[in-house]
Amino acid sequence: MPNLKALARDTAIYGLSSIVGRFLNYLLVPLYTHYMPKASGDYGVSTNIYAYTALFLVLLTFGMETTFFRFANKQPTHPQPLPGGREVDSSAASSSNGKSVCSPPSQGGPASSAFSTAMAVVGVLTAIFLVLVFVFIQPISGALGYGEHPEYLQMMAVVVALDALQAIPFSYLRFQKRALRFAALKMLFIVLNIGLNLLYFVVLGKTSVYYVFFINLLCTSFITLFFVPDLLRIRWTFDGRLLRSMLSYSWPILILGIAGILNQVADKIVFPLVYPDEAEANVQLGIYGSCVKIAMIMAMITQAFRYAYEPIVFAKSGDADKKEYYAMAMKYFLVFTLLAFLCVVGWMPLLQHIIGADYREGLAVVPIVMVAEIMMGVYFNLSFWYKLVDKTIYGAWFSLAGCAVLFAVNILFIPRFGYMACAWGGVAGYGTAMVLSYVVGQRHNPIPYPLKDMAAYTVATALLFGGMKLTETLLPSWLQLVVNTVLILLFVAMVVKRDLPLASLPVVGRYFRR
């Protein structure tokens, strides 16, 4: 299918930037865990504040990223002027080489009203947020346990505000299929961030968590400058009916987003509040936060898939073969994430060196957190049935149910089991949302997911994982890597035999057709 090829191409671009970016960011984990000792609790402070930042980013974007895609594709088709003066039908605004030639929002076009409306909503919310934070900084910082360091919260408030303002322009790049520019700006931020961290921590010896936040503020501000020319050229329009429609569509997505992000960060927010030893809470949270970084390859894969998949799903919503496409996309997503799971677990003797030795006592959470992330990715793929029929309220209820389960597990079990309860809470929360979305979705909009194939791959992964855990107790590290690599190759062989016939591939296929 051409759309599957487009999905694969865009996922590769988004994924490469995300994978390379996350890999480079991993370089910061040994840096922080070396220069910020476990006993200082600084890494725990960073983990806690970034959790709040992620939550407020969802609040400020107000679901407008997905809403923009929905309304940009939903507007009626009409001829649009190009810079040269000729007109082009917006429903066929693409060139023969596959590159988008959609008019930017400054030139009008089918997405301009949706773009300017989304930016207006986010801009107003961001302004209100900054005023409230800076006016009430003392009581806020005191309530969160940072009364002696309100500057931490002030810096990150500005960071989250700028990230929110960038979100819609980044979404427009995705709408235009400008994956390379999207990836370039993301990579520029990462490279600049890493360079400044090395300068401050290694060269200048500035090792306080203060500089983690300060550097983030500098880098985010710099990337925002790249969007200023476009924002100044926006043809601002106000359509009260469109605004009401977009808000009606987005508020359930906001609830969905809040519940979804809480499933990711609630443990890091709740942990210091319920852990019985207040002085030790940030130390334990630092251990958990550093080990979770290794598991974040799943979040990275899911994000890359989402960036490419979301625009295609909405564009394909009217096609006759859409359900078969969604089913196959789900299957290949699961296969790819299960392979990633095996690679991370199997190569843990190497990957564990990403974090400092003092933090490695928490590595047992890695496979558990990765399972939770796989469930989150499956839930994301399942979620399109209600987005396409404008019933996003279902997603809000599913995510709230999952979030309630997660909160319950964390509050009840963190005092007894520490950060292991955080890891299992994620599995319980995402698992609840995933099952609810599947059961209800199959009643309202049934999709023929290849459940037998997906179950076969899941069972195979579980068996191979058991073998890897066995090598962990019996073999030295170098031999573990050898045996685990063989087990990973067995999974790859299964994929090739069942779903990737090599004879059909270009170039290399001719060697298998003989």
How would you explain this protein's 3D organization?
Helix 12 (278-295) packs across helix 16, helix 14 (322-346) runs parallel beside helix 20 (451-474) and helix 16 (365-382) packs parallel to helix 19 (419-444). The chain has 514 residues and is mostly helical. 76% of the residues lie in helices and 1% in strands. It is built from 22 helices and two strands. Residues 75-104 have low confidence and may be disordered. The radius of gyration is 23 Å and the shape is globular. The longest helix is centred in the middle third of the chain and has 35 residues, at 240-274. The protein starts with a helix and ends with a helix. It has a two-stranded antiparallel sheet.
Output the keywords:
514 residues; mainly alpha; two-stranded antiparallel ribbon; 2 strands; 1% strand
List the helices and strands and how they pair.
Blueprint: H1 2-26, H2 28-35, H3 42-61, H4 64-74, E1 79-81, E2 87-89, H5 112-135, H6 137-143, H7 150-175, H8 179-203, H9 210-225, H10 228-232, H11 240-274, H12 278-295, H13 297-315, H14 322-346, H15 348-351, H16 365-382, H17 384-388, H18 393-417, H19 419-444, H20 451-474, H21 477-499, H22 509-512
Antiparallel strand pairs: 1-2
